[in-house]
Amino acid sequence: MAGDAAEINRTIFNEEAASYDEKHRKLNDRLTRELQARLDFIGVDWASDDDDSDDEDERDARERPRREVRLLDYACGTGMMSRALAPYTAQCVGMDISEEMVAAYNRGAENQGLSPDEMRAVLGDLTSESVDDALSSPELFNFDIAVVGGGFHHFEDPELAAKRLVERLRPGGVLLIWDFLPHGPLNLHLHQHHHHNHGHGHGHGRGINAERDEDQATREIFRSVMHHGFSEARMREIFTGAGAGAEFRLEVIGRGFAIGGHGHGHGEDQTPAQQGERWGAEGKDDAGGDKGEGKDKDKDDKEALRRQVFFARGTKRGVERK
What is the C-alpha separation between 112 and 103, in angstroms, rounded? Predict the structure, then answer.
């Protein structure tokens, strides 16, 4: 079953790679800001190893050597997590099951003028029963932080994935995951109704065939979702079982992220009022019905298209891998 899930993910995200960043630009920008605002929450020793005095001036602080933090970005996709945390690290290594995502990650790093020593991605699956020998080289171990950005719900066995990631951390290293709190499965009919009738369809000047292709892509994406969110209790159990339960913390981000209309199903963070602007006009809804009659249904639909995002982190304890 795990092999089937991996193949589904590989196929789907190979197809998504070329358009992924554009589809998820607003979400990625928001998550980048949230991550960079929570460096203390993440808990990695981003600062210099030097124990400088409190009255050190800003010039000295800028010039002192920074600690060489190494980051492993698993299910890295095009590299959002790596890009968000790269300013605070010396090296980012991405790993993904999708060949096209790995290629997109490496193109992005090259376009930023980064060397492979600073940022690169490799092809790999840490959720298989046996891990490929190519992933056993010393350079793929002893990371200061391992991250999974929005990929945990695609793993058939997230407990195994967490364990394999913690094995690659140095003692005191941090496991960081963003994903969704528990929610019901997204109703495909509801998603299509929202997509076609509320500002994501015909009004954009696209043909019927293009819409059908996007609906098919959305249907395929839904097949790759193995878990409808994670509770704090389950995440604590996963972190503890993997060996990174020390100093576990989980923080919910914002008031919820609206989803719909773009493949993977993660949308930008919006208030209910902002969402309402996308749902119908005065008097009639976009489907031609009475807006008043559909008000309650639209409210329920909008709530069904929202997800609560969390950041969870924990610290590895134990002896250093030899």
Answer: 14
